[in-house]
Specification:
With 265 residues, this protein is mostly helical. The chain is globular and about 55 Å long. The chain has ten helices and no strands. 58% of the residues lie in helices and 0% in strands. α2 (22-44) packs antiparallel against α5 (145-164). It starts with a helix and ends with a helix. The longest helix has 25 residues, at 237-261. Bound molecules: prephenic acid. Its EC number is 5.4.99.5. This is Chorismate mutase. It catalyses: chorismate = prephenate. Keywords: Amino-acid biosynthesis, Aromatic amino acid biosynthesis, Isomerase, Signal. Residues 145-256 form the Chorismate mutase domain.
């Protein structure tokens, strides 16, 4: 019976197409901030655990780090159950992903077909391990490499999803002002595109809200909150804001430009 109900739920008539507007994509980005902040908090529970990243913990028959092993295999499992049928999801290792084994859900076709070729996960991967981790993770080794890799994976997926959401932001903006975007796209004017899609005041709100979320979600809670001055945080709130300022927002904008450059293909 469960199977029947599921099949009915997925029939085309019952699926309300997702509507993308500037408001709705911004709402989605705001909700994803929560996931990213929680992801930082969860990863910060473990020390650096550098063996996770190739410091000697070799997996027989696998040329790569423990983190890579976990991510590749988890992506393969999730691909089989349809994760990457959703255009909002982008794998880190798209090479050799197994096909989905489940009936496809009719996701709204909102993006230009070229969107699938925009995937900057290789740069996100490098940045995450080389630059981000050392910013908010304590040094040390507690042996929890598998748990560490699992928390890296969910944080990486959250960051990647947020950055690649730029495709949806860009498509909304293009549809709203095609006359302004088209000449810039034809001229391959990256700078002009960057300027047109930038809203400084929105970026400032994002940074401030993320810092506040890191404070609210990440404060160490005690019963005698008498002296608010002694509140401590699981992740330095200014690091969360810096992460957005220096990497997440700029990369979301890079994805927008990259997507727009192919928009008229
Ligand atoms: O909200 C937008 O318009 C976006 O394009 C998203 C975003 C961001 O990454 O937060 C990026 C560029 C804009 O300058 C403002 C914010």
């Amino acid at each position: 019976r469960m199977g029947m109900a599921k099949a009915e739920e997925l029939s085309l008539e019952s699926v309300k197409g997702k509507v993308y507007t500037l408001d709705s994509v911004r709402e989605a980005l705001i909700r994803q901030e929560d996931t990213i902040v929680f992801g930082l908090i969860e990863r910060a529970k473990f020390p650096m655990n550098s063996h996770t990243y190739g410091g000697g913990e070799e997996i027989p028959g696998f040329a790569g780090s423990l983190a890579e092993f976990v991510v590749k295999n988890t992506e393969a499992v999730q691909a089989k159950v349809g994760r990457y049928n959703n255009p909002e999801e982008n794998p880190f290792f798209p090479e050799n992903l197994p096909p989905s084994l489940v009936p496809p859900y009719p996701f709204t076709e909102f993006l230009h077909p070229k969107a699938a070729s925009v995937n900057i996960n290789k740069s996100i991967w490098k940045l995450y391990f080389d630059e981000l981790l050392p910013l908010f993770v304590a040094s040390g080794d507690d042996g929890n490499y598998a748990q560490t890799a699992a928390s890296d994976l969910s944080l990486l997926q959250a960051i990647s999803r947020r950055i690649h959401y730029g495709k949806f932001v860009a498509e909304v903006k293009f549809r709203e002002s095609a006359q302004q975007y088209e000449p810039l796209i034809r001229a391959e004017d990256k700078e002009g595109l960057m300027k047109l899609l930038t809203f400084e005041s929105v970026e400032e709100m994002v940074r401030k809200r993320v810092e506040k979320k890191a404070k609210v979600f990440g404060q160490n809670v005690t019963l005698n909150n008498g002296d608010e001055k002694n509140v401590t945080y699981k992740v330095d709130p200014s690091v969360a804001a810096t992460l957005y300022k220096n990497w997440i927002i700029p990369l979301t904008k890079d994805v927008q430009v990259e997507y727009l450059l192919h928009r008229l293909d």
